[in-house]
Amino acid sequence: MIKIRSLTKQYGKNVVLRGIDLDVVPGEFLVILGPSGAGKSTLLRCINGLITPSGGELSVAGFDATNTGSRRNLRGLRQQVAMIFQHHNVVPRLSVLKNVLTGRLGQVSTLSSLLQLFSKQDVALALDCLRRVELEHKAGERTDALSGGQRQRVGIARALAQQPKVILADEPIASLDPKTAHLVLQYLRDACRELGITVICNLHQVEYAREFGDRIVGLAGGKLVFDGRSSELRESHINLIYGGFDKAQEAQATVGVTQSEVQHPAELSLQGALS
Questions:
Q1: What is the pLDDT of residues 5-50, one digit of tens each?
Q2: What domains are there in the chain, each with its CATH number?
Q3: Are strands 198-203 and 215-220 parallel, antiparallel or unpaired?
Q4: Tens digit of pLDDT for each residue in 80-107?
Q5: Residue 15 per-residue DSSP state
Q6: Sheet holding 223-229: strands in order across?
Q7: pTM reported for the whole predicted model
Q8: Can you list the positions of beta strands (E) in the chain?
């Protein structure tokens, strides 16, 4: 589904991603953990073709995500990849239903897209997506009348209406209270399980990563420092992730392991470091 090899991204002298290697399989719920500035959002933007990597290989659902110069390739990529943003990115003056229907714009003809003409099938799909996030009864209301948590659920429904193979969620619960945050992540995991959609979700909260992620990837200083099942995440790994890139390098040197070993803790024999 997603194959990343030696991926780098830099802006001038500022290196944001440092040789990322990652595979994501269909239907997997992958959580990316890391502090602000670790490169989490940059990685998602590379996967969706919003920015062009500086180097490396990146294949998503059969499309070359490094080839952002080809409009045909980029359109095909974005038809397969939906985004859920931290600040909802809904249109407040539109109804809830029309916001969800904007998820269909990339799937219809250019004329229909410009005129916002949607078929009965599109409307039925949008209503079903609202049902999945328990907002079908709000379909006719203006979106600016909703709470922040409800707007984020509209964002999820819009992403589902796109019928993507991949959903990228960039800090989707950052501004939500714990109860609403848990609900939003539950909707995402349900979509992953029931529809077979691959979900990659950037988070700060370790407890949510453990609860909802099939697998967790840790980024520090633009480098992959952990890659394992949720049950494999230990306090030592959390210290690597949130200690920063310099501390990650220092910790690796201290325990005498290679980068690949830190990424895959199940293969380690470092009982002392992981206890």
A1: 999 999 999 999 999 999 999 999 999 999 999 999 999 999 999 9
A2: 2-274 (3.40.50.300)
A3: unpaired
A4: 999 998 887 899 999 999 999 999 887 7
A5: E
A6: 81-84, 166-170, 198-203, 29-33, 215-220, 223-229
A7: 0.85
A8: 2-11, 14-24, 29-33, 55-60, 63-64, 81-84, 166-170, 198-203, 215-220, 223-229
